[in-house]
Design a protein that fits this description.
The complex is a heterodimer of chains A (about 220) and B (about 425).
Chain A (H helix, E strand, L loop, with lengths): L1 E5 L3 H13 L3 E5 L2 H10 L4 E5 L7 H11 L6 E5 L4 H9 L4 E4 L4 H20 L1 E4 L2 E4 L4 E4 L2 E3 L3 H13 L4 E2 H9 L6 H15 L8 E4 L3 E4 L3
Parallel strand pairs in A: 1-2, 1-3, 3-4, 4-5
Antiparallel strand pairs in A: 6-7, 7-8, 8-9, 10-12, 11-12
Helix pairs in contact in A: 2-3, 6-8
Chain B lengths: L1 H57 L10 E4 L7 H9 L5 E3 L5 E8 L5 E7 L5 H4 L1 H43 L15 H52 L3 H24 L7 E4 H11 L1 H6 L3 E6 L4 E4 L1 H18 L4 E6 L3 E7 L28 H11 L3 E7 L2 E7 L2
Helix pairs in contact in B: 1-4, 5-6, 6-9, 6-10, 7-9, 9-10
Classes of the chains: A alpha/beta (about 220), B alpha+beta (about 425).
Chain lengths: ~220, ~425
């Protein structure tokens, strides 16, 4: 993955580069908005990590320029100390794909980068890939270790939701909303669907990938 | 609101005019009858003095000069209907009969202490009663004309009198861009004073809000940038040193500072004052899932009883911070591996075991700023801030200790 970090603070910039390099990703650092815009026009990045408080051109204007001028729709993750609702709303309005307030956990930055590229990949190829799991949204098929999984329609929705949210957990309420909308039946219905899904995704294999979180939700455990 | 004031003034003016007109109509009607009666009595009194004068001269009762007046020595010669009425009330001076007669009677006293009765049958003199239909029609026509005129004037006056207020309200309602200063028109009267006061107060308020926004944004940036550097450095250190205890402690302290800063900023911002109906169960579930890793690391079991759809009036951001504070507190200070959590429609209870011997501070004092138990390694602001958040949303937070159990109850609005 190729990442552009736009950060005027030299220490934070260096820390981000060091951490992201350790993930074996290629990282470029731009300390001004002008440089970031120019780099985005010359090169293709998978993700731009953008600070909002920049000297010269403000981060919001940089985001707008990247989204309008770059040939490719590069996902932008805003990293900023501005945490007021109004600032977040402005950020998303100018085209940000995600927003993380300082001080952030570097591991979360990495996870969000993965999630954003996954979302981008899904838009381009209709395919989600998490560890051993592969899911094709176009023909609604799923595989684990290239072995096809015979999923019901509801099972497919649950697995897709879990894969899209990975590594975050998904609450029962969100899953039920994705499956049944506002017409939610009792929670036993979800229980039986989860049982069927586990029979298909986990039972025939050595390791269980679907993990229950404190009876509140589920997550994929790929590690 | 604007049309409401105009309508109210218009209605009140019209109603006032109708009531005044009706009162005058009734008063005029009464005056007409009184004048009619007074005319009849004047005629009768004139005839009475003629009779008394003649009797004094001739010692005989004369014949009445008008054909509708008759003179009677006593009641026996009066018409039967009049006699019957006098039997009922001897002092009556005016009688109506069923056959259309209307009598007025006067008792005459002469110089020789004798008396007589002067009776007048006056239906032809009752001008008002006879013309009542025509008069009523005339009154009605005049009343309708006056009413229409009154409605027109009421409408006109309501527009004129309310116009400055309506204009002022419109100007204020249009000045909804909080970034721009308010500029209201000049009015020559009391409205002008009101407008200039409003303008000055609104501009002061907007300036203060802008200053607050800039201040919190600047402070947020200045505080969070070095915290980010420390957090990142600890993260990088941790990945190199493999879970070092000292680094973990620094991480914990950093999380405390971050949490405190987030709560303080949330409380300081005007946006936190906005309340709505929030889904407490969903927010708490999210808080638990956010803290899932810490729960697992500490090997804590949450014994939860959550009402499926607990809702309350509050602020989403503040509620999440509050529940996060309470759960983090319980996770950190529980001396056993189970935390009891109950969420009902009315309240939220979180209870954990604690070491009684380390609890040197009275329970009530824990809600004060900077107060903490001996075991606590935090800043001593966690519960104080939690209480402030609760108060901000009109909720109530209480502490309770019993048999080595520390319980916090949160009552929703």
């Amino acid at each position: 993955m190729k990442i552009l970090v736009v950060e005027d603070n030299p220490v934070i910039g260096k820390q981000l580069v060091e951490f992201l390099n350790a993930q074996r990703w290629t990282v470029d650092l731009a300390t001004t908005g002008e440089l970031a815009i120019s780099l985005c026009q010359q090169e293709i990045f998978d993700i731009v990590l953008l600070d909002l408080n920049l000297p010269g051109i403000d981060g919001l204007a940089v985001c707008q320029a990247i989204k309008h001028k770059a040939e490719r729709n590069t996902p932008v993750l805003m990293l900023t100390a501005r945490d007021a609702f109004e600032d977040k709303a402005k950020g998303f309005a100018t085209g940000a794909d995600d927003y993380l307030t300082k001080p952030y956990d570097l591991r979360e930055v990495a996870l969000r980068c993965q999630a954003l590229t996954r979302r981008q990949d899904l838009l381009r190829s209709n395919t989600l890939q998490i560890g051993e799991l592969t899911l094709h949204t176009a023909d609604r098929t799923a595989f684990r270790h290239s072995q096809p999984l015979k999923l019901t329609q509801t099972g497919f929705i649950i697995l897709k939701t879990l894969m899209e949210a990975y590594p975050e957990a998904v609450s029962r309420r969100v899953l039920m909303h994705n499956i049944w909308g506002d017409d939610i039946p009792d929670s036993d219905a979800l229980k039986s669907h989860m049982y069927s899904l586990r029979n298909v995704v986990d039972k025939p294999f050595d390791k269980a990938l679907i993990k229950t979180i404190l009876n509140l939700g589920f997550k994929l455990d790929i590690s | 609101m604007i049309s409401g004031i105009k309508k109210r003034v218009f209605k009140q003016l019209t109603l006032f005019t109708i009531i005044t007109s009706l009162l005058f109509l009734a008063f005029t009607w009464v005056i007409a009858f009184v004048v009619e009666d007074e005319v009849i009595y004047a005629v009768l009194n004139n005839e009475a003095s003629y009779v008394q004068q003649t009797y004094k001269t001739t010692q005989k009762l004369p014949n009445a000069r008008a054909d509708f007046i008759s003179i009677h020595q006593d009641q026996t010669s009066l018409p039967i209907a009049v006699q019957n009425q006098l039997k009922i009330n001897e002092r009556s001076k005016e009688f109506f009969t069923d056959d259309g007669h209307h009598f007025h009677i006067i008792k005459l006293k002469f110089y020789d202490h004798t008396s007589a009765l002067l009776l007048a049958d006056v239906p032809h003199l009752l001008v008002v009663s006879r013309m009542s239909k025509q008069l009523m029609l005339l009154f009605t026509i005049v009343f309708i004309c006056c009413l229409l005129l009154a409605i027109f004037f009421a409408y006109w006056i309501s527009i004129l009198s309310v116009k400055p207020i309506v204009n002022l309200a419109k100007e204020i309602s249009d000045a909804n861009d909080v970034q721009q200063p308010v500029q209201l028109a000049n009015y020559p009267d009391e409205i002008g004073f009101l407008a200039s006061t409003l303008q000055s107060n609104m501009n002061d308020l907007r300036t203060t809000l802008r200053r607050e926004k800039h201040f919190t944004r600047d402070v947020s940036h200045e505080l969070r940038t070095p915290l980010t550097i420390i957090a990142n450095e600890l993260q990088l250190l941790n990945s190199q040193m493999q879970e070092h205890t000292n680094v973990n402690r620094m991480h914990e302290a950093l999380n405390d500072i971050n949490n405190t800063i987030s709560v303080l900023f949330a409380l300081a911002r005007a946006e936190s004052l906005q309340s709505e109906i929030i889904d407490l169960t969903a927010i708490f579930e999210q808080v638990v899932m956010d803290l899932y890793q810490e729960i697992e690391q500490r090997k804590i079991v949450l014994d939860m009883s959550l009402f499926e759809k607990a809702q309350a009036m509050g602020n989403q951001t503040l509620t999440k911070l509050l529940l996060n504070n309470l759960l983090t507190n319980a996770l950190r200070y529980s001396t056993e591996h189970t935390i009891q959590i109950t969420l009902t429609e009315k309240h939220f209870i979180i209870a954990n075991a604690f070491e009684d011997s380390l609890f040197t501070v009275p329970t009530d004092h824990l809600l004060s700023s900077g107060i903490r138990s001996e075991k606590s390694t935090g800043l001593g602001h966690g519960l104080f801030l939690s209480q402030r958040i609760a108060e901000n949303m009109g909720w109530k937070l209480t502490l309770h200790t019993d048999n080595n159990t520390f319980a916090i109850t949160l009552y929703f609005k």
